[in-house]
Amino acid sequence: MPQNRPRIKNEAQYEALRDKGYSQEKAARIANTPDSGKKGGKAKPYEERTKKELYQQAREIGISGRSKMDKKELIAALRNN
């Protein structure tokens, strides 16, 4: 395990995500969730969420410029982060 990154809870999932092209940050965030590696996500699709819900998630992740984004732009930013 490289010394320059934080501990990863699910190393296999992290490596699989990196192989798919995910950024180090996004792969680590996904691999460190409490239920990482489990199937059956229960979150509704971005399109079914309100702009307020999308904004809150973008805020938690730290997406810059989110206050000026419309719903479609928030969805794109969340998917590409």
TrEMBL record:
Q: Where is the composition biased (Basic and acidic residues)?
A: 19-28
Q: Where is this region: Disordered?
A: 19-49
Q: Name one Pfam family in it.
A: Rho_N
What's a single GO BP term from this record? DNA-templated transcription termination
Task: Cite the Rho termination factor-like N-terminal domain residue spans from the record.
Answer: 50-78
Q: Which domain of life is it from?
A: Bacteria
Q: State what protein this is by name.
A: Rho termination factor-like protein
Species source reads Aquimarina intermedia
Q: What is the lineage of its organism?
A: Bacteria, Pseudomonadati, Bacteroidota, Flavobacteriia, Flavobacteriales
